[in-house]
User: Fold this.
Amino acid sequence: MEDHHIVRQGIRQLLKLRNNYEIVGDAGDGASAIKKTKELLPDVIVLDISIPKINGIETAKQIRSINKNIKIIVLTMYEARELITRMIDIGVSAYLNKESTDTDLIAAIDATMDGQMFFSPSVSKIMAEKLTERTGDSFAPEANEETYGKLTGREKTILYMVAEGYCSKEIAKHLSISRNTVNNHRGNIMKKVNIHDAVGLTKYAINLGLLVNSDQKDIEHNIC
Assistant:
């Protein structure tokens, strides 16, 4: 969802190179984006903030109200903290600036489809700060030793790696296990600690003190 035709075509051509992606549509303004979302119900939407008719913020809100399972990847030139935090509050899965590489966009799509979140390096620090500010809400319940103690040794390792920003594919490679096994462990972890997304697990790990230098580490882990 991008108002510049040449940018939309560039993204379309990039994604066509990936056999596992099916491009179902595009739009040049917010109103068209919302209409097509209702009609097509895509898995992932790449969305700019500065688009005509209905801006990207309101468009993201309405897309989330249509179907919360749709992953929204913000691709924009704007990196003001207020915008980033507002879009995160809405529930976007990734936030990239337009200086990001083609590889970054592909990695963001793969990560969000794998249940991860993805941020440009310059956005990651803001995200880490935001996570440490949020306490006592359903977004990330307060960590405690009792729930952590329910995890097996392997689950603790995977929790740490998820919180560090590794996706299932990377974790599987590092631990020499299958991706399905990693996903099974992730599911077990989420059930045991009652957290159901990667961002919540990151906050949980921060509260436990597992990520001592979390504001720096989040900058380093972005590509899956």
Summary: The CA atoms of residues 160 and 179 lie 16 Å apart. The two ends are 24 Å apart (CA to CA). Residues 134-141, 212-224 have pLDDT under 50 and may be disordered.
